[in-house]
Amino acid sequence: MTTTATPDAPPKVALRHRLAERGVDTLLLLALPASVFMAVLFFYPAAYGVYLSFHPLPGGGGFFGNYQAFFTQPYMRDSILNTFRIALPAALINVVFAVPVSLVMRRRIHGQKALNTLLVVPITLGTVLVAQGLLIYLGPRGWLNRTLTALGIISNPIQLVHNNLGVVIALIVTGFPFAFMLTASYLSGINPNLEAAAGTLGASSWRRFTNVTFPLLAPGLAITFCLTFVLAFSVFPSAQLLGNASGGAHVLAIAAANAAFQDYNYPMASTISVITAVIELIVVALVLGLRSRLYSGSTSNAGKA
Amino acid sequence: MAGILTDVPQSAKTSREKVTIRSVGGWLIWALVVFFFINVFAVIAAVLVQSFGSTWFDSWFPTGWTTRYYGYAWNNFQLPNILLVTLEVALTVTVVALLIGAPTAYVLARRDFPGKRILNLCFLLPIMVPTITYGIPLATLLYQVHLGGTVGGVILANLVPTVPFVILVLTPFIEQIDPNIETAARSCGAKTHQVLLQILAPLIVPGLLASALLVLVQTVGLFEMSYLVSGPGSQTLVVALYYAVFASGIRPAQAISAMAVMYMLTTLILLVVALRFVSPTQMVAQVPDPQRK
Protein backbone atom coordinates (compact mmCIF):
# COMPACT_ATOMS: atom_id res chain seq x y z
CA MET A 1 0.00 0.00 0.00
CA THR A 2 2.85 2.33 0.87
CA THR A 3 5.11 1.31 -1.99
CA THR A 4 4.36 4.42 -4.04
CA ALA A 5 4.10 6.78 -1.08
CA THR A 6 7.17 8.76 -0.04
CA PRO A 7 8.60 7.68 3.32
CA ASP A 8 7.49 10.85 5.13
CA ALA A 9 3.89 10.66 3.87
CA PRO A 10 1.74 8.72 6.37
CA PRO A 11 -0.02 5.65 4.86
CA LYS A 12 -3.34 7.01 6.13
CA VAL A 13 -3.32 9.71 3.48
CA ALA A 14 -2.51 7.24 0.77
CA LEU A 15 -5.50 5.11 1.75
CA ARG A 16 -7.76 8.15 1.76
CA HIS A 17 -6.62 9.08 -1.71
CA ARG A 18 -7.06 5.57 -2.96
CA LEU A 19 -10.58 5.48 -1.58
CA ALA A 20 -11.35 8.92 -2.99
CA GLU A 21 -10.30 7.69 -6.41
CA ARG A 22 -13.01 5.04 -6.19
CA GLY A 23 -15.56 7.62 -5.05
CA VAL A 24 -15.37 6.96 -1.35
CA ASP A 25 -14.84 10.10 0.73
CA THR A 26 -16.37 11.93 3.65
CA LEU A 27 -19.22 13.23 1.48
CA LEU A 28 -20.68 9.73 1.50
CA LEU A 29 -21.43 10.28 5.17
CA LEU A 30 -24.40 12.32 3.96
CA ALA A 31 -26.06 9.02 3.07
CA LEU A 32 -25.47 7.69 6.55
CA PRO A 33 -28.58 8.98 8.40
CA ALA A 34 -31.02 7.51 5.88
CA SER A 35 -29.04 4.26 5.65
CA VAL A 36 -28.96 3.82 9.41
CA PHE A 37 -32.64 4.70 9.61
CA MET A 38 -33.60 2.09 7.03
CA ALA A 39 -31.35 -0.50 8.66
CA VAL A 40 -32.93 0.04 12.06
CA LEU A 41 -36.56 0.45 11.04
CA PHE A 42 -36.87 -1.67 7.91
CA PHE A 43 -34.20 -4.34 7.66
CA TYR A 44 -33.88 -5.08 11.36
CA PRO A 45 -37.67 -5.50 11.86
CA ALA A 46 -37.85 -7.65 8.73
CA ALA A 47 -35.05 -9.87 10.00
CA TYR A 48 -36.61 -9.87 13.46
CA GLY A 49 -39.90 -11.00 11.92
CA VAL A 50 -38.19 -13.92 10.22
CA TYR A 51 -36.40 -14.80 13.48
CA LEU A 52 -39.66 -14.55 15.43
CA SER A 53 -41.47 -16.82 12.99
CA PHE A 54 -39.07 -19.64 13.90
CA HIS A 55 -39.63 -19.18 17.62
CA PRO A 56 -43.23 -20.14 18.40
CA LEU A 57 -44.88 -19.27 21.68
CA PRO A 58 -44.48 -21.91 24.42
CA GLY A 59 -46.40 -25.01 23.37
CA GLY A 60 -46.33 -23.94 19.71
CA GLY A 61 -43.91 -26.64 18.60
CA GLY A 62 -40.29 -26.53 17.54
CA PHE A 63 -38.30 -24.52 15.03
CA PHE A 64 -40.87 -24.92 12.26
CA GLY A 65 -43.80 -25.09 14.69
CA ASN A 66 -45.52 -21.97 13.38
CA TYR A 67 -45.16 -23.02 9.77
CA GLN A 68 -46.47 -26.48 10.60
CA ALA A 69 -49.41 -24.91 12.41
CA PHE A 70 -50.10 -22.61 9.46
CA PHE A 71 -50.13 -25.32 6.84
CA THR A 72 -52.05 -27.88 8.93
CA GLN A 73 -54.89 -25.54 9.93
CA PRO A 74 -57.40 -25.59 7.05
CA TYR A 75 -58.54 -22.04 7.86
CA MET A 76 -55.02 -20.68 7.54
CA ARG A 77 -54.16 -22.76 4.50
CA ASP A 78 -57.31 -21.66 2.72
CA SER A 79 -56.48 -18.02 3.32
CA ILE A 80 -53.65 -18.33 0.76
CA LEU A 81 -56.07 -19.59 -1.87
CA ASN A 82 -58.66 -16.97 -1.02
CA THR A 83 -56.09 -14.18 -1.23
CA PHE A 84 -55.19 -15.39 -4.72
CA ARG A 85 -58.90 -15.53 -5.57
CA ILE A 86 -59.12 -11.83 -4.77
CA ALA A 87 -55.73 -10.53 -5.86
CA LEU A 88 -55.31 -12.35 -9.16
CA PRO A 89 -58.57 -11.21 -10.83
CA ALA A 90 -58.11 -7.68 -9.48
CA ALA A 91 -54.54 -7.37 -10.74
CA LEU A 92 -55.34 -8.98 -14.11
CA ILE A 93 -58.38 -6.77 -14.72
CA ASN A 94 -56.41 -3.66 -13.77
CA VAL A 95 -53.48 -4.41 -16.08
CA VAL A 96 -55.52 -5.82 -18.99
CA PHE A 97 -57.75 -2.74 -19.08
CA ALA A 98 -54.86 -0.35 -18.50
CA VAL A 99 -53.31 -1.28 -21.89
CA PRO A 100 -56.18 -0.36 -24.29
CA VAL A 101 -57.13 2.66 -22.20
CA SER A 102 -53.62 4.06 -22.23
CA LEU A 103 -53.32 3.32 -25.96
CA VAL A 104 -56.51 5.26 -26.68
CA MET A 105 -55.59 8.09 -24.33
CA ARG A 106 -52.18 8.47 -25.94
CA ARG A 107 -53.78 9.92 -29.08
CA ARG A 108 -55.62 12.72 -27.29
CA ILE A 109 -52.92 14.56 -25.50
CA HIS A 110 -54.82 17.73 -24.63
CA GLY A 111 -57.08 16.02 -22.05
CA GLN A 112 -54.24 14.03 -20.51
CA LYS A 113 -53.58 16.22 -17.48
CA ALA A 114 -57.27 16.50 -16.57
CA LEU A 115 -57.70 12.76 -16.90
CA ASN A 116 -54.67 12.01 -14.75
CA THR A 117 -55.94 14.45 -12.15
CA LEU A 118 -59.28 12.65 -12.04
CA LEU A 119 -57.54 9.29 -11.82
CA VAL A 120 -55.41 10.39 -8.91
CA VAL A 121 -58.52 11.18 -6.83
CA PRO A 122 -59.39 7.57 -5.88
CA ILE A 123 -55.73 6.86 -5.09
CA THR A 124 -55.49 9.92 -2.86
CA LEU A 125 -58.76 9.17 -1.08
CA GLY A 126 -57.33 5.82 -0.11
CA THR A 127 -58.68 2.38 0.59
CA VAL A 128 -60.61 3.20 3.76
CA LEU A 129 -62.73 5.94 2.24
CA VAL A 130 -63.35 3.96 -0.94
CA ALA A 131 -64.49 1.00 1.17
CA GLN A 132 -66.84 3.20 3.19
CA GLY A 133 -68.30 4.73 0.01
CA LEU A 134 -68.70 1.34 -1.66
CA LEU A 135 -70.59 0.02 1.37
CA ILE A 136 -73.21 2.71 0.79
CA TYR A 137 -73.15 2.73 -3.02
CA LEU A 138 -73.12 -1.04 -3.62
CA GLY A 139 -75.33 -1.98 -0.67
CA PRO A 140 -78.68 -3.71 -1.23
CA ARG A 141 -80.43 -0.30 -1.12
CA GLY A 142 -77.57 1.56 -2.76
CA TRP A 143 -77.70 3.51 -5.99
CA LEU A 144 -76.23 0.77 -8.16
CA ASN A 145 -78.76 -1.89 -7.18
CA ARG A 146 -81.51 0.73 -7.43
CA THR A 147 -80.44 1.74 -10.95
CA LEU A 148 -80.17 -1.86 -12.12
CA THR A 149 -83.62 -2.64 -10.70
CA ALA A 150 -85.14 0.48 -12.26
CA LEU A 151 -83.65 -0.47 -15.63
CA GLY A 152 -85.16 -3.93 -15.27
CA ILE A 153 -81.77 -5.66 -15.47
CA ILE A 154 -82.23 -7.34 -12.11
CA SER A 155 -85.37 -8.09 -10.11
CA ASN A 156 -83.75 -8.47 -6.70
CA PRO A 157 -80.75 -6.54 -5.36
CA ILE A 158 -77.51 -8.41 -5.97
CA GLN A 159 -75.06 -8.99 -3.17
CA LEU A 160 -72.02 -6.85 -4.01
CA VAL A 161 -70.58 -6.16 -0.57
CA HIS A 162 -69.65 -8.38 2.35
CA ASN A 163 -68.11 -10.90 -0.01
CA ASN A 164 -65.01 -11.34 -2.18
CA LEU A 165 -66.62 -9.45 -5.07
CA GLY A 166 -66.79 -6.27 -2.99
CA VAL A 167 -63.09 -6.54 -2.18
CA VAL A 168 -62.21 -7.06 -5.86
CA ILE A 169 -64.28 -4.00 -6.81
CA ALA A 170 -62.52 -1.92 -4.16
CA LEU A 171 -59.15 -3.10 -5.50
CA ILE A 172 -60.16 -2.06 -9.02
CA VAL A 173 -61.30 1.40 -7.91
CA THR A 174 -57.93 2.20 -6.33
CA GLY A 175 -55.77 -0.15 -8.39
CA PHE A 176 -56.88 0.66 -11.92
CA PRO A 177 -55.77 4.33 -11.83
CA PHE A 178 -52.43 3.14 -10.47
CA ALA A 179 -52.02 0.53 -13.22
CA PHE A 180 -53.16 2.97 -15.90
CA MET A 181 -50.77 5.74 -14.87
CA LEU A 182 -47.81 3.38 -14.76
CA THR A 183 -48.71 1.84 -18.13
CA ALA A 184 -49.24 5.28 -19.66
CA SER A 185 -45.85 6.47 -18.46
CA TYR A 186 -44.17 3.36 -19.88
CA LEU A 187 -46.07 3.84 -23.14
CA SER A 188 -44.96 7.46 -23.41
CA GLY A 189 -41.38 6.20 -23.30
CA ILE A 190 -41.87 4.26 -26.52
CA ASN A 191 -40.89 6.16 -29.63
CA PRO A 192 -44.08 6.54 -31.76
CA ASN A 193 -41.90 6.62 -34.89
CA LEU A 194 -41.29 2.90 -34.48
CA GLU A 195 -45.00 2.24 -34.95
CA ALA A 196 -45.20 4.73 -37.79
CA ALA A 197 -42.30 2.96 -39.46
CA ALA A 198 -44.10 -0.37 -39.19
CA GLY A 199 -47.17 1.35 -40.64
CA THR A 200 -45.30 2.56 -43.70
CA LEU A 201 -44.15 -1.01 -44.22
CA GLY A 202 -47.81 -2.01 -44.40
CA ALA A 203 -48.41 -3.39 -40.92
CA SER A 204 -52.04 -3.27 -39.79
CA SER A 205 -52.82 -1.53 -36.51
CA TRP A 206 -53.25 -4.91 -34.80
CA ARG A 207 -49.89 -6.11 -36.11
CA ARG A 208 -48.29 -2.84 -35.10
CA PHE A 209 -49.58 -3.48 -31.60
CA THR A 210 -48.61 -7.14 -31.34
CA ASN A 211 -45.24 -6.88 -33.07
CA VAL A 212 -44.00 -3.43 -32.12
CA THR A 213 -45.78 -1.75 -29.24
CA PHE A 214 -46.57 -4.72 -27.05
CA PRO A 215 -43.06 -6.24 -27.02
CA LEU A 216 -41.66 -2.83 -26.10
CA LEU A 217 -44.34 -2.31 -23.48
CA ALA A 218 -44.05 -5.82 -22.01
CA PRO A 219 -41.22 -5.10 -19.53
CA GLY A 220 -43.12 -2.13 -18.12
CA LEU A 221 -46.34 -4.10 -18.10
CA ALA A 222 -44.69 -6.90 -16.14
CA ILE A 223 -43.56 -4.40 -13.48
CA THR A 224 -47.04 -2.84 -13.44
CA PHE A 225 -48.59 -6.26 -12.93
CA CYS A 226 -46.15 -7.09 -10.14
CA LEU A 227 -46.85 -3.86 -8.26
CA THR A 228 -50.62 -4.13 -8.69
CA PHE A 229 -50.62 -7.78 -7.70
CA VAL A 230 -48.45 -7.24 -4.64
CA LEU A 231 -50.72 -4.38 -3.53
CA ALA A 232 -53.81 -6.52 -4.04
CA PHE A 233 -52.24 -9.55 -2.38
CA SER A 234 -51.68 -7.67 0.85
CA VAL A 235 -55.13 -6.07 0.76
CA PHE A 236 -56.15 -5.14 4.26
CA PRO A 237 -58.62 -2.36 5.10
CA SER A 238 -60.99 -2.97 2.20
CA ALA A 239 -60.95 -6.72 2.90
CA GLN A 240 -61.78 -6.05 6.53
CA LEU A 241 -64.60 -3.61 5.72
CA LEU A 242 -66.01 -5.04 2.50
CA GLY A 243 -65.32 -8.71 3.08
CA ASN A 244 -67.49 -11.28 4.75
CA ALA A 245 -69.56 -9.64 7.50
CA SER A 246 -68.26 -12.13 10.06
CA GLY A 247 -64.62 -11.21 10.36
CA GLY A 248 -63.67 -9.81 6.98
CA ALA A 249 -62.58 -11.49 3.80
CA HIS A 250 -60.41 -14.46 4.38
CA VAL A 251 -57.07 -12.97 3.33
CA LEU A 252 -53.53 -13.34 4.64
CA ALA A 253 -53.15 -9.76 5.87
CA ILE A 254 -56.24 -10.11 8.06
CA ALA A 255 -55.05 -13.49 9.37
CA ALA A 256 -51.75 -11.83 10.32
CA ALA A 257 -53.40 -8.82 11.95
CA ASN A 258 -55.77 -11.07 13.90
CA ALA A 259 -52.91 -13.24 15.11
CA ALA A 260 -51.10 -10.14 16.34
CA PHE A 261 -53.86 -8.01 17.78
CA GLN A 262 -56.51 -10.54 18.84
CA ASP A 263 -54.43 -13.55 19.90
CA TYR A 264 -51.30 -11.55 20.81
CA ASN A 265 -49.39 -14.32 19.02
CA TYR A 266 -46.69 -12.17 17.43
CA PRO A 267 -44.58 -15.14 16.29
CA MET A 268 -47.59 -16.49 14.36
CA ALA A 269 -48.34 -13.04 12.94
CA SER A 270 -44.72 -12.79 11.78
CA THR A 271 -44.99 -16.27 10.26
CA ILE A 272 -48.02 -15.23 8.21
CA SER A 273 -46.22 -12.02 7.15
CA VAL A 274 -43.19 -14.04 6.06
CA ILE A 275 -45.40 -16.48 4.10
CA THR A 276 -47.18 -13.53 2.43
CA ALA A 277 -43.87 -11.94 1.47
CA VAL A 278 -42.45 -15.24 0.15
CA ILE A 279 -45.54 -15.86 -2.02
CA GLU A 280 -45.33 -12.30 -3.36
CA LEU A 281 -41.65 -12.77 -4.14
CA ILE A 282 -42.36 -16.05 -5.95
CA VAL A 283 -45.05 -14.43 -8.09
CA VAL A 284 -42.83 -11.43 -8.85
CA ALA A 285 -39.92 -13.73 -9.75
CA LEU A 286 -42.19 -15.80 -12.01
CA VAL A 287 -43.54 -12.74 -13.81
CA LEU A 288 -40.12 -11.16 -14.23
CA GLY A 289 -38.73 -14.49 -15.45
CA LEU A 290 -41.55 -14.72 -17.96
CA ARG A 291 -40.96 -11.10 -18.92
CA SER A 292 -37.36 -11.66 -19.99
CA ARG A 293 -38.43 -14.62 -22.14
CA LEU A 294 -41.40 -12.80 -23.64
CA TYR A 295 -39.38 -9.69 -24.38
CA SER A 296 -36.39 -11.28 -26.12
CA GLY A 297 -38.66 -13.58 -28.17
CA SER A 298 -40.81 -10.80 -29.51
CA THR A 299 -37.97 -8.42 -30.27
CA SER A 300 -36.49 -10.90 -32.68
CA ASN A 301 -39.83 -11.07 -34.51
CA ALA A 302 -40.02 -7.32 -34.83
CA GLY A 303 -36.46 -7.03 -36.08
CA LYS A 304 -33.93 -4.63 -34.69
CA ALA A 305 -36.07 -1.78 -33.44
CA MET B 1 -44.82 11.53 -43.44
CA ALA B 2 -48.32 11.98 -44.82
CA GLY B 3 -46.82 11.80 -48.29
CA ILE B 4 -45.25 8.46 -47.57
CA LEU B 5 -48.45 7.11 -46.07
CA THR B 6 -50.51 7.93 -49.17
CA ASP B 7 -48.00 6.04 -51.26
CA VAL B 8 -48.66 2.82 -49.35
CA PRO B 9 -50.43 0.55 -51.85
CA GLN B 10 -53.72 0.13 -50.05
CA SER B 11 -57.16 1.01 -51.34
CA ALA B 12 -58.93 3.88 -49.62
CA LYS B 13 -61.80 1.56 -48.76
CA THR B 14 -59.88 -0.85 -46.52
CA SER B 15 -58.12 1.93 -44.67
CA ARG B 16 -61.48 3.59 -44.02
CA GLU B 17 -62.84 0.28 -42.69
CA LYS B 18 -59.91 0.02 -40.36
CA VAL B 19 -60.51 3.53 -39.11
CA THR B 20 -64.13 2.67 -38.25
CA ILE B 21 -63.15 -0.54 -36.45
CA ARG B 22 -60.52 1.35 -34.54
CA SER B 23 -62.84 4.18 -33.65
CA VAL B 24 -65.56 1.75 -32.50
CA GLY B 25 -62.98 0.13 -30.23
CA GLY B 26 -61.87 3.58 -29.15
CA TRP B 27 -65.42 4.59 -28.26
CA LEU B 28 -65.87 1.37 -26.32
CA ILE B 29 -62.77 2.16 -24.29
CA TRP B 30 -64.01 5.70 -23.71
CA ALA B 31 -67.39 4.33 -22.57
CA LEU B 32 -65.56 2.07 -20.14
CA VAL B 33 -63.54 4.95 -18.74
CA VAL B 34 -66.68 7.06 -18.37
CA PHE B 35 -68.41 4.13 -16.65
CA PHE B 36 -65.48 3.83 -14.26
CA PHE B 37 -65.61 7.52 -13.40
CA ILE B 38 -69.38 7.53 -12.96
CA ASN B 39 -68.99 4.79 -10.39
CA VAL B 40 -66.09 6.45 -8.61
CA PHE B 41 -67.98 9.71 -8.31
CA ALA B 42 -71.16 7.93 -7.27
CA VAL B 43 -69.13 6.38 -4.45
CA ILE B 44 -67.95 9.82 -3.35
CA ALA B 45 -71.41 11.33 -3.81
CA ALA B 46 -72.99 8.55 -1.75
CA VAL B 47 -70.78 9.45 1.20
CA LEU B 48 -71.52 13.16 0.73
CA VAL B 49 -75.28 12.67 0.43
CA GLN B 50 -75.46 10.39 3.42
CA SER B 51 -73.57 12.85 5.61
CA PHE B 52 -76.23 15.52 4.95
CA GLY B 53 -79.25 13.22 5.15
CA SER B 54 -81.51 13.19 8.20
CA THR B 55 -82.93 9.75 7.36
CA TRP B 56 -82.02 7.72 4.33
CA PHE B 57 -83.41 4.27 4.26
CA ASP B 58 -85.16 2.90 1.20
CA SER B 59 -85.22 5.72 -1.31
CA TRP B 60 -83.04 7.36 -3.95
CA PHE B 61 -82.26 10.30 -1.70
CA PRO B 62 -82.62 11.07 2.00
CA THR B 63 -86.05 12.23 3.10
CA GLY B 64 -84.64 15.35 4.75
CA TRP B 65 -81.43 17.31 4.87
CA THR B 66 -79.45 18.39 7.90
CA THR B 67 -75.95 19.41 8.93
CA ARG B 68 -76.26 18.33 12.54
CA TYR B 69 -74.26 15.13 12.05
CA TYR B 70 -71.17 17.21 11.40
CA GLY B 71 -71.41 18.65 14.89
CA TYR B 72 -72.15 15.18 16.23
CA ALA B 73 -69.11 13.69 14.48
CA TRP B 74 -66.91 16.59 15.59
CA ASN B 75 -67.72 15.98 19.23
CA ASN B 76 -68.23 12.22 19.33
CA PHE B 77 -65.17 11.11 17.41
CA GLN B 78 -62.80 13.48 19.26
CA LEU B 79 -62.02 15.02 15.90
CA PRO B 80 -60.13 18.08 17.24
CA ASN B 81 -57.60 15.78 18.88
CA ILE B 82 -57.47 13.45 15.88
CA LEU B 83 -56.91 16.33 13.47
CA LEU B 84 -54.15 17.67 15.68
CA VAL B 85 -52.41 14.29 15.75
CA THR B 86 -52.81 13.93 11.97
CA LEU B 87 -51.28 17.35 11.41
CA GLU B 88 -48.45 16.67 13.85
CA VAL B 89 -47.65 13.30 12.27
CA ALA B 90 -47.87 14.51 8.67
CA LEU B 91 -45.74 17.63 9.22
CA THR B 92 -43.06 15.88 11.30
CA VAL B 93 -42.84 13.00 8.84
CA THR B 94 -42.48 15.45 5.94
CA VAL B 95 -39.73 17.52 7.60
CA VAL B 96 -37.73 14.56 8.91
CA ALA B 97 -38.06 12.60 5.66
CA LEU B 98 -36.68 15.58 3.73
CA LEU B 99 -33.88 16.19 6.24
CA ILE B 100 -32.51 12.67 6.05
CA GLY B 101 -33.64 11.85 2.51
CA ALA B 102 -32.23 14.87 0.65
CA PRO B 103 -28.54 14.38 1.59
CA THR B 104 -28.76 10.73 0.56
CA ALA B 105 -30.39 11.70 -2.72
CA TYR B 106 -27.47 14.06 -3.34
CA VAL B 107 -24.91 11.33 -2.77
CA LEU B 108 -26.81 8.89 -4.99
CA ALA B 109 -27.18 11.50 -7.73
CA ARG B 110 -23.58 12.73 -7.79
CA ARG B 111 -21.31 9.95 -6.62
CA ASP B 112 -20.33 6.62 -8.02
CA PHE B 113 -19.00 4.33 -5.33
CA PRO B 114 -18.72 0.61 -4.67
CA GLY B 115 -21.99 -0.75 -3.31
CA LYS B 116 -24.10 2.01 -4.85
CA ARG B 117 -26.40 -0.44 -6.62
CA ILE B 118 -27.02 -2.33 -3.40
CA LEU B 119 -27.74 0.90 -1.55
CA ASN B 120 -30.17 1.91 -4.31
CA LEU B 121 -31.93 -1.44 -4.00
CA CYS B 122 -32.13 -1.05 -0.22
CA PHE B 123 -34.03 2.19 -0.67
CA LEU B 124 -36.25 0.75 -3.42
CA LEU B 125 -37.31 -2.31 -1.44
CA PRO B 126 -39.47 -0.57 1.19
CA ILE B 127 -41.47 1.07 -1.61
CA MET B 128 -42.01 -2.15 -3.51
CA VAL B 129 -42.92 -4.28 -0.49
CA PRO B 130 -46.44 -3.62 0.82
CA THR B 131 -46.46 -1.89 4.18
CA ILE B 132 -48.51 -4.52 5.96
CA THR B 133 -45.90 -7.21 5.22
CA TYR B 134 -43.14 -5.56 7.25
CA GLY B 135 -45.48 -3.42 9.33
CA ILE B 136 -46.44 -6.17 11.78
CA PRO B 137 -42.86 -7.05 12.85
CA LEU B 138 -42.08 -3.32 12.98
CA ALA B 139 -45.11 -2.68 15.20
CA THR B 140 -44.07 -5.59 17.42
CA LEU B 141 -40.64 -4.02 17.87
CA LEU B 142 -42.02 -0.54 18.51
CA TYR B 143 -44.32 -1.93 21.19
CA GLN B 144 -41.34 -3.66 22.80
CA VAL B 145 -39.46 -0.37 23.14
CA HIS B 146 -42.66 1.28 24.42
CA LEU B 147 -43.10 3.44 21.33
CA GLY B 148 -46.20 1.57 20.18
CA GLY B 149 -49.39 3.53 20.71
CA THR B 150 -47.53 6.84 20.91
CA VAL B 151 -47.43 9.67 18.38
CA GLY B 152 -43.65 9.22 18.19
CA GLY B 153 -44.12 5.60 17.19
CA VAL B 154 -46.64 6.54 14.52
CA ILE B 155 -44.19 9.11 13.13
CA LEU B 156 -41.32 6.59 13.04
CA ALA B 157 -43.48 3.95 11.35
CA ASN B 158 -44.70 6.41 8.71
CA LEU B 159 -41.12 7.47 7.96
CA VAL B 160 -40.19 3.96 6.80
CA PRO B 161 -41.94 4.18 3.41
CA THR B 162 -41.55 7.97 3.05
CA VAL B 163 -37.76 8.35 3.41
CA PRO B 164 -37.09 6.07 0.39
CA PHE B 165 -39.86 7.85 -1.48
CA VAL B 166 -38.16 11.24 -0.97
CA ILE B 167 -34.85 9.76 -2.15
CA LEU B 168 -36.52 8.29 -5.22
CA VAL B 169 -38.17 11.59 -6.17
CA LEU B 170 -35.18 13.83 -5.43
CA THR B 171 -32.35 11.78 -6.97
CA PRO B 172 -33.33 12.34 -10.63
CA PHE B 173 -34.10 15.97 -9.78
CA ILE B 174 -30.56 16.57 -8.46
CA GLU B 175 -29.06 14.60 -11.35
CA GLN B 176 -30.42 17.10 -13.85
CA ILE B 177 -28.72 20.07 -12.14
CA ASP B 178 -25.46 20.89 -13.89
CA PRO B 179 -22.57 19.67 -11.69
CA ASN B 180 -20.35 22.36 -13.22
CA ILE B 181 -22.12 24.91 -11.03
CA GLU B 182 -20.79 23.12 -7.96
CA THR B 183 -17.32 22.80 -9.49
CA ALA B 184 -17.32 26.51 -10.23
CA ALA B 185 -18.27 27.33 -6.64
CA ARG B 186 -15.50 25.08 -5.39
CA SER B 187 -12.90 26.66 -7.65
CA CYS B 188 -13.95 30.00 -6.18
CA GLY B 189 -13.02 28.59 -2.78
CA ALA B 190 -16.37 27.49 -1.41
CA LYS B 191 -16.29 24.81 1.26
CA THR B 192 -18.41 21.66 0.95
CA HIS B 193 -21.08 22.89 3.31
CA GLN B 194 -21.20 26.21 1.46
CA VAL B 195 -21.62 24.45 -1.87
CA LEU B 196 -24.45 22.36 -0.47
CA LEU B 197 -26.28 25.06 1.44
CA GLN B 198 -25.67 28.18 -0.66
CA ILE B 199 -25.42 26.77 -4.18
CA LEU B 200 -27.31 23.51 -4.34
CA ALA B 201 -30.07 24.07 -1.78
CA PRO B 202 -31.65 27.07 -3.57
CA LEU B 203 -31.55 25.15 -6.85
CA ILE B 204 -33.38 22.11 -5.51
CA VAL B 205 -36.11 24.07 -3.72
CA PRO B 206 -38.71 23.10 -6.38
CA GLY B 207 -37.78 19.44 -5.99
CA LEU B 208 -37.93 19.70 -2.20
CA LEU B 209 -41.32 21.38 -2.39
CA ALA B 210 -42.65 18.72 -4.74
CA SER B 211 -41.45 15.83 -2.60
CA ALA B 212 -42.71 17.55 0.57
CA LEU B 213 -46.19 17.82 -0.90
CA LEU B 214 -46.13 14.24 -2.14
CA VAL B 215 -45.08 12.99 1.29
CA LEU B 216 -47.74 15.12 2.97
CA VAL B 217 -50.54 13.72 0.80
CA GLN B 218 -49.18 10.20 1.24
CA THR B 219 -48.89 10.39 5.01
CA VAL B 220 -52.42 11.71 5.50
CA GLY B 221 -53.75 8.84 3.39
CA LEU B 222 -51.38 6.06 4.48
CA PHE B 223 -53.47 3.72 6.58
CA GLU B 224 -51.56 0.55 7.40
CA MET B 225 -48.55 1.94 9.28
CA SER B 226 -50.61 4.28 11.45
CA TYR B 227 -53.18 1.55 12.08
CA LEU B 228 -50.59 -0.97 13.23
CA VAL B 229 -48.75 1.38 15.57
CA SER B 230 -51.33 3.85 16.86
CA GLY B 231 -53.29 3.50 20.06
CA PRO B 232 -55.92 5.62 21.76
CA GLY B 233 -54.78 9.23 21.57
CA SER B 234 -52.39 8.67 18.67
CA GLN B 235 -54.89 7.84 15.94
CA THR B 236 -54.67 9.67 12.66
CA LEU B 237 -57.80 10.70 10.78
CA VAL B 238 -57.78 7.75 8.39
CA VAL B 239 -57.35 5.26 11.25
CA ALA B 240 -60.17 6.85 13.23
CA LEU B 241 -62.36 6.68 10.13
CA TYR B 242 -61.51 3.00 9.73
CA TYR B 243 -62.50 2.23 13.32
CA ALA B 244 -65.71 4.18 12.89
CA VAL B 245 -66.67 2.24 9.76
CA PHE B 246 -65.57 -1.04 11.30
CA ALA B 247 -67.73 -0.47 14.37
CA SER B 248 -70.62 0.94 12.36
CA GLY B 249 -73.93 0.49 14.11
CA ILE B 250 -72.64 2.04 17.33
CA ARG B 251 -72.96 5.56 15.92
CA PRO B 252 -75.33 6.88 13.25
CA ALA B 253 -74.18 6.14 9.70
CA GLN B 254 -74.55 9.82 8.84
CA ALA B 255 -71.96 10.75 11.46
CA ILE B 256 -69.47 8.28 10.01
CA SER B 257 -70.08 9.76 6.57
CA ALA B 258 -69.67 13.27 7.99
CA MET B 259 -66.27 12.23 9.30
CA ALA B 260 -65.47 10.65 5.94
CA VAL B 261 -66.34 13.95 4.24
CA MET B 262 -64.00 15.83 6.55
CA TYR B 263 -61.25 13.34 5.72
CA MET B 264 -62.07 13.70 2.03
CA LEU B 265 -61.82 17.49 2.24
CA THR B 266 -58.44 17.30 3.99
CA THR B 267 -56.93 15.02 1.35
CA LEU B 268 -58.53 16.76 -1.62
CA ILE B 269 -57.37 20.22 -0.48
CA LEU B 270 -53.85 18.83 -0.11
CA LEU B 271 -54.19 17.20 -3.52
CA VAL B 272 -55.27 20.45 -5.19
CA VAL B 273 -52.33 22.28 -3.62
CA ALA B 274 -49.93 19.48 -4.54
CA LEU B 275 -51.09 19.34 -8.16
CA ARG B 276 -50.05 22.96 -8.61
CA PHE B 277 -46.45 21.87 -8.15
CA VAL B 278 -46.27 18.22 -9.20
CA SER B 279 -47.70 16.18 -12.05
CA PRO B 280 -50.40 13.61 -11.20
CA THR B 281 -48.15 10.75 -12.32
CA GLN B 282 -45.71 11.66 -9.55
CA MET B 283 -48.43 10.93 -6.99
CA VAL B 284 -48.10 7.29 -7.90
CA ALA B 285 -44.91 5.78 -6.53
CA GLN B 286 -42.20 6.15 -9.14
CA VAL B 287 -40.77 2.98 -10.55
CA PRO B 288 -37.49 2.45 -12.33
CA ASP B 289 -37.92 3.26 -15.97
CA PRO B 290 -36.87 0.35 -18.20
CA GLN B 291 -35.85 2.82 -20.91
CA ARG B 292 -33.36 4.49 -18.63
CA LYS B 293 -31.34 1.38 -17.90
Ordered list of secondary-structure elements with their pairings:
The complex is a heterodimer of chains A (305) and B (293).
Chain A: H1 11-21, H2 32-53, H3 65-72, H4 74-107, H5 112-137, H6 143-150, H7 164-188, H8 192-200, H9 205-233, H10 237-242, H11 252-261, H12 266-302
Chain B: H1 2-7, H2 12-52, H3 68-76, H4 79-110, H5 116-128, H6 131-144, H7 151-175, H8 179-187, H9 192-203, H10 205-221, H11 224-229, H12 237-246, H13 253-275, H14 280-283
Helix pairs in contact in B: 2-13, 3-13, 4-7, 4-10, 5-7, 7-10, 8-9, 10-13, 12-13
Q: Please mark out the parts of chain A with pLDDT under 50 across 5 or more consecutive residues, or reply none.
A: 296-305
The number of E-state strands of chain B comes to 0
In CATH, the topology of chain A is named MetI-like fold
CATH topology-level fold name of the largest domain in chain B: MetI-like fold
Helix content of chain A: over 70%
Give a verbal description of the structure.
The complex is a heterodimer of chains A (305) and B (293). Chain A contains twelve helices and no strands. Chain A has one domain: MetI-like (MetI-like fold, Orthogonal Bundle). Chain A has helices spanning 11-21, 32-53, 65-72, 74-107, 112-137, 143-150, 164-188, 192-200, 205-233, 237-242, 252-261, 266-302. Chain B folds into two domains: 3-52; 77-284, MetI-like (MetI-like fold). Residues 1-13 and 287-293 of chain B have low confidence and may be disordered. At the A-B interface, α2, α4, α5, α6 and α7 of A face α2, α4, α5, α6 and α7 of B.
